[in-house]
Structures are given as C-alpha cells and as structure tokens.
Design a protein that fits this description.
- This protein is of the alpha+beta class.
- The chain is built from three helices and five strands; from the N terminus they run βαββββαα.
- The strands form two sheets. The protein has a three-stranded antiparallel sheet. The chain has a two-stranded antiparallel sheet with strand order 1-5.
C-alpha cells in the first residue's frame, strides 16, 4: 500500500472517524474536536482541526493514527470513498 498522502483534508479525516464508529461531540469554541465511540478503545479521542488551510500534514496524521491505534495501511483502506 502507498504511504500517507502529503496532506489530507479535515473532512476526509472526519469521514474515517465516522467509519470507525466515532461521533463528533459538542465542543467549545476553538480547534479541539472530540469524538466518542463507547464500543471502541480508545472510546474518546480528541484532535485539533487544522486551520487556516484545513489540511492535516503527515506528521500530525501519524500522531492521530497513533491515538486511534491504527497503522497507515488500515487508515488508507478506511480513507477510500471518503
């Protein structure tokens, strides 16, 4: 499988979270976004929505995948159709 893209739009990353069963939680103003899935470990994850360009770069994406306990190949499969 190919490596991570050089950048990925936040909306596509959020789509992957939905595929994993996470739902966005109401948040305070700012860039932090929390997602909940009671049936998955971890069940609550938080990420910073990028701004102003709205794209995640590879280093941040790798950190986010680590939080989700997912590897690059799993992520790339989930990214399809997002």
């Amino acid at each position: 499988m190919p490596g991570l893209p050089t950048q990925i739009q936040w909306r596509r990353f959020a789509c992957v979270l939905r595929k994993l069963g996470y739902t966005a939680q109401k948040t305070e103003p700012g860039a932090a976004r929390s997602f909940l899935n009671p049936g998955r470990n971890p069940n609550v994850v938080s990420f910073r929505e990028p701004h102003p360009d709205n794209n995640l770069r590879p280093a941040v994406l790798r950190q986010n995948l680590h939080k989700l306990l997912r590897n690059q190949d799993e992520f790339m499969q989930l990214l399809e159709d997002c």
